[in-house]
């Protein structure tokens, strides 16, 4: 049938000019779609196999090529490790620490240039999108440094027979379902993440980038983001939550917003554990110059600084902890704890900004909990490390902090820890500024059953040299108008009762009212405190300071002995009076009985 609508010669020429290319493109698309899938499959399998040294195998069920759109859609992709190859490498001590398994139902590649791949052996893709992939990662510490392998070729040298280069503009993995299994500890630690996103930009593997150390996995930047993550420790005693986490390999920064490590409820926690109950909250955590690649490969933590801001650290001593006089608690000293860490650690500076530190202890005698608070704590901790090369350059960790004791008195503290000394040598000194004694009652009433009724601290300073065996130094305690009330528990009414007579006795004859006294005499204290083997770090620090405080307030050894003798004499006289009273009442009762019987 004639084409009646093509009446003019120019119309027929135009029609032929447009129709012929369209027909050719459509036929080409059909042919390419038919033969593209096996060609692409062969290329992908070859690239994955060669670049992973035969460790990984890749496959997919089908692929669609849309030439006009420059798009490829690949279905049911799998990336699996070859366990036989892995076990062989493990026997040869060449196995990687991390194994990955990936499953993706649908992958979209945009801005693809298939002809350059087929004719020029150049894989050039503008964007790759993987939605809701399933990613299983397992970690096992097979080696702690790069192993010597026979094949020293780079990734580009391995793929160069099949491809001249691989270039991908952006790789997006959205809503990743991640399962992470860590076999490096005593127990397998399993973590699951759902709201996880990955993005990688400018992936380029060619002869120029094969030795580019500024790239991670040949990408200019890899960004990992996690939202609303919740996990649990293997013991079940702690849950940890992260509102948002972001890691950028380009900036080498790890940022966390809304970090929380929360212990189980007290009855559950102390029912399962003899350890102290700890907690951590932080609005912001930032790790700078974080060497992610070495952490990922070998579990080494290296960073220029770690900042914790706007949060709270809590500690609650276990009230049911059994005394253990045989175990040396020197392991609780920070320099010993760093030494025993099961990872290679190197942080140049830990920055604390506006953190509250709250210590709680339950007293069995008073049946109440005492609280010691260090509010709005800020400062720096330098050279936190157990790395041998770092310690060889500097074997001291130093601390410089400013805090507000019981949210009132400013306390400046400096500490210095020797990281190589076998006796865990360290020093600490500081100064506490003015505050009212009454601010101490949340601690002194439950823990010492002493209520501060009046007085103020003018200055408290200390300078102590210490190790695991003995603490030595000087303590100065300046204050005015100290008065106290001694207490005893009233369990029936869940409160305290006053020891009126003992309180008067203490204020009149025991406690020094002020230091310096009315004559201007200042009392300082030289301290020598021998640490009991079972005394942990913070308890020993407090006991040493208390040993220095006592003489300043009039409780030196001689005064304490005299006071004890007076109290013992008072109690003895009281017992005799009670005994005499009881005997008089007994005789009175006996006389009354005889009178009632008519025998008196």
Give structural attributes.
12 helices; elongated; 600 residues; 23-stranded mixed sheet; alpha+beta
Explain what you see.
The protein has twelve helices and 23 strands. By secondary structure, the protein is of the alpha+beta class. Among the domains are: 50-146 and 155-232, no CATH class; 557-599. The longest helix is centred in the N-terminal third of the chain and has 43 residues, at 9-51. It is elongated. Mean pLDDT is 83; it is low at 10-32.
In total, the number of strands is 23
Oligomer: single chain
Secondary-structure content class = alpha+beta
| Rg over C-alpha atoms, rounded to the nearest angstrom | 37 Å
- Gross morphology: elongated
The separation of the N and C termini measures 154 Å
Beta-strand content: 35-45%
Average pLDDT rating? 83
Q: Low-confidence parts, pLDDT < 50 over ≥5 residues? A: 10-32
Q: How many helices?
A: 12
- Main sheet record: 23 strands, mixed
Roughly how much helix do the residues carry, as a percent range? 25-40%
């Amino acid at each position: 049938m004639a084409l009646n609508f093509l009446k003019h010669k120019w119309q027929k020429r135009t029609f032929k000019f447009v129709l012929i290319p369209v027909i050719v493109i459509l036929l080409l698309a059909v042919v390419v779609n038919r033969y593209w899938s096996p060609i692409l499959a062969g290329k992908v399998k070859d690239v994955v196999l060669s670049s992973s040294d035969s460790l990984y195998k890749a496959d997919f069920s089908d692929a669609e090529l849309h030439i006009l759109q420059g798009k490829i859609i690949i279905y049911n992709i799998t990336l699996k490790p070859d366990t036989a190859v892995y076990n062989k490498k493990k026997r040869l001590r060449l196995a990687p620490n991390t194994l990955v398994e990936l499953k993706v139902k649908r992958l979209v590649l945009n801005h693809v240039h298939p002809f350059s791949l087929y004719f020029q052996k150049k894989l050039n893709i503008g964007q790759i999108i993987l939605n809701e992939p399933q990613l299983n990662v397992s970690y096992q510490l097979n080696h702690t440094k790069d192993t010597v392998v026979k094949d020293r070729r780079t990734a580009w040298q391995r793929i160069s027979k099949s491809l001249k280069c691989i270039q991908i503009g952006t790789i997006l993995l959205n809503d990743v379902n991640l399962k992470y299994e860590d076999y490096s500890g005593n127990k397998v630690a399993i973590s699951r993440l759902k709201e996880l996103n990955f993005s990688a930009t400018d992936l380029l593997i060619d002869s120029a980038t094969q030795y580019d150390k500024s790239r991670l996995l040949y990408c200019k930047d890899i960004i990992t983001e996690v939202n609303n993550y919740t996990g649990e420790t293997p013991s079940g005693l702690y849950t940890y939550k992260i509102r948002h986490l972001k890691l950028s390999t380009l900036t080498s920064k790890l940022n966390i917003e809304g970090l929380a490590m929360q212990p189980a409820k007290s009855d559950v926690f102390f029912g399962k554990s003899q350890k102290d109950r700890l907690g951590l909250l932080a609005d912001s955590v930032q790790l700078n110059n974080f060497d992610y690649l070495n952490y990922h490969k070998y579990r080494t933590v290296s960073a220029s600084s770690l900042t914790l801001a706007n949060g709270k650290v809590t500690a609650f001593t276990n009230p049911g902890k059994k005394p253990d006089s045989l175990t040396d608690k020197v392991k609780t000293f920070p320099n010993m704890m760093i030494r025993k860490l099961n990872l290679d650690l190197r942080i140049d500076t830990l920055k604390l900004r506006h953190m509250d530190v709250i210590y709680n202890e339950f007293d069995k005698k008073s049946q109440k909990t005492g609280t010691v608070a260090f509010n709005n704590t800020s400062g720096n901790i330098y050279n936190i490390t157990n790395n041998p090369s770092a310690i060889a350059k500097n074997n001291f960790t130093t601390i410089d902090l400013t805090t507000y004791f019981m949210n009132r008195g400013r306390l400046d503290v400096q500490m210095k820890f020797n990281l190589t000394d076998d006796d865990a040598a360290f020093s600490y000194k500081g100064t506490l500024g003015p505050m009212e004694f009454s601010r101490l009652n949340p601690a002194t009433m439950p823990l010492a059953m002493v209520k501060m009724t009046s007085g103020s601290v003018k200055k408290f300073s200390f300078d102590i040299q210490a190790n695991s065996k003995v603490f030595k130094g000087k303590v100065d305690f300046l204050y005015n108008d100290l008065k106290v009330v001694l207490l005893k528990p009233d369990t029936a009414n869940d409160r305290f009762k006053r020891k009126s007579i003992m309180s008067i006795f203490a204020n009149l004859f025991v406690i020094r009212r002020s230091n310096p006294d009315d004559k201007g005499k200042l009392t300082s204290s030289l301290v020598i405190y021998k640490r009991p083997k079972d005394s942990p770090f913070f308890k020993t620090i407090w006991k040493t300071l208390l040993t220095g405080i006592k003489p300043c307030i009039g409780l030196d050894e001689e005064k304490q002995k005299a006071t004890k003798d007076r109290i013992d004499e008072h109690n003895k006289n009281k017992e005799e009076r009670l005994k005499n009273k009881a005997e008089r009442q007994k005789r009175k009762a006996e006389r009354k009985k005889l009178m009632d019987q008519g025998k008196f």
